[in-house]
Amino acid sequence: MTVPVSIVVAVAQNGVIGRDGGMPWKLSTDLRRFKQLTIGKPIVLGRKTLESFGGKPLPGRPHVIITRNRDFSVQGAVTIDGVEKALAKAQEVAAETGAAEVCVIGGGEVYRQVMNLVDVLYVTHVEVAVPDGDTFFPPIDPAVFEKVEETLVPAGERDDYPTRFAIYRRRPATN
């Protein structure tokens, strides 16, 4: 039995998810949602994404880091050299820890590679078009993913922009 695999991402109206190795916005409300969605679950991420938040694992989540650099290691994390191997390892960790889900948290290249392998998308739609982004999220195909929930979230005092929290589920395969 494998647990569902999800993507957790914040995306601008024009598909931007990053700029200069970081996020092009400050969204305290979204960070709280991110923590709530990922805490206690194995997370899969690329090396650059880990470096974007200081190079140390986030507390309370087993990390599976994808990197081609065989010498790269981080205390408290597993490093693996491919998306499929990383997802398999995260599934093992989920089984060992009783986690209900594996969360893929970035970055752009990792999202692109796992899009056909995930069950659920937790998307924070950021209500802005970022003109100078350099990392993008692949388009969500409505024939593949159905939006099952959406909540409008006005900008809080520590948010740069209003957002929409949406959940998409993979549609059943048809013959």
TrEMBL record:
Pfam families: DHFR_1
Top EC class for this record: oxidoreductase
Catalytic activity, reaction form: (6S)-5,6,7,8-tetrahydrofolate + NADP(+) = 7,8-dihydrofolate + NADPH + H(+)
Segments forming domain DHFR: 4-170
GO MF term set: dihydrofolate reductase activity; NADP binding
Pathway noted in the entry: Cofactor biosynthesis; tetrahydrofolate biosynthesis; 5,6,7,8-tetrahydrofolate from 7,8-dihydrofolate: step 1/1
Keyword match Iron: no
Biological process per Gene Ontology, one example term: tetrahydrofolate biosynthetic process
Keyword Hydrolase assigned: no
Record-level GO cellular component terms: cytosol
Cross-referenced PROSITE patterns: DHFR_1, DHFR_2
Top-rank taxon, per record: Bacteria
Primary role: Key enzyme in folate metabolism. Catalyzes an essential reaction for de novo glycine and purine synthesis, and for DNA precursor synthesis.
Name this polypeptide is given: Dihydrofolate reductase
UniProt source species: Pseudorhizobium banfieldiae
